[in-house]
Write a structure and sequence with these properties.
Length: 164
């Protein structure tokens, strides 16, 4: 009876010549459609639905933004090894899509990346400054002391022995 069923862009068309078969087929198709919404979603489906890359999916799964409902392990035809991947709850994905969370998460990631780059650049500049200050005759400790800002009252604090 598959020849009587046509699926086009989210539209299911059932054309049955006999009216007696229509009710039975319609109920079976309705049950199948209801059970489909309960099935966990595969990673490729998540990427398509949310419009994200696999790198973003892995990153957000690791961060806990995407919640996995478990894993599935399959053995692909013609291969000796098995593949394990996470599957996701469709309702959780629906809430992510409704809140436009991928856009928000991308903005947060961009801000975090900019902060990390700025921090790394400052750390590299400080290291270069220490290396240049130590020069051929100085020690690294002297360079660190020269690079650190001088604070009022620091000598008295150091004299009390609180840093030892």
């Amino acid at each position: 009876m598959r020849k009587h069923l046509t699926v086009d862009a989210g539209l299911v068309i059932l054309s049955v010549p006999d009216a007696e078969h229509f009710a039975a087929l319609a109920s079976r198709i309705g049950d199948a459609l209801e059970s489909i919404s309960e099935l966990p979603m595969l990673p490729s489906e998540i990427e398509d639905v949310l419009g994200i890359s696999s790198r973003e999916r892995h990153k957000w799964l690791e961060d806990g933004r995407l919640r996995s409902v478990g894993t599935r392990t399959v053995k692909l035809r013609g291969r000796a090894r098995t593949v394990t991947f996470h599957v996701f709850d469709p309702r959780h994905i629906e809430t992510i899509l409704d809140g436009d969370l991928p856009t928000i998460w991308r903005e947060e990631d961009a801000i975090r990346s900019a902060e990390n780059r700025r921090r790394a650049a400052a750390k590299a500049a400080l290291a270069r400054k220490r290396k240049a200050a130590s020069g051929p005759g100085g020690t690294e400790r002297e360079a660190a002391e020269e690079a650190s800002p001088s604070l009022a009252g620091w000598d008295e604090f150091d004299a009390d022995g609180l840093l030892r």
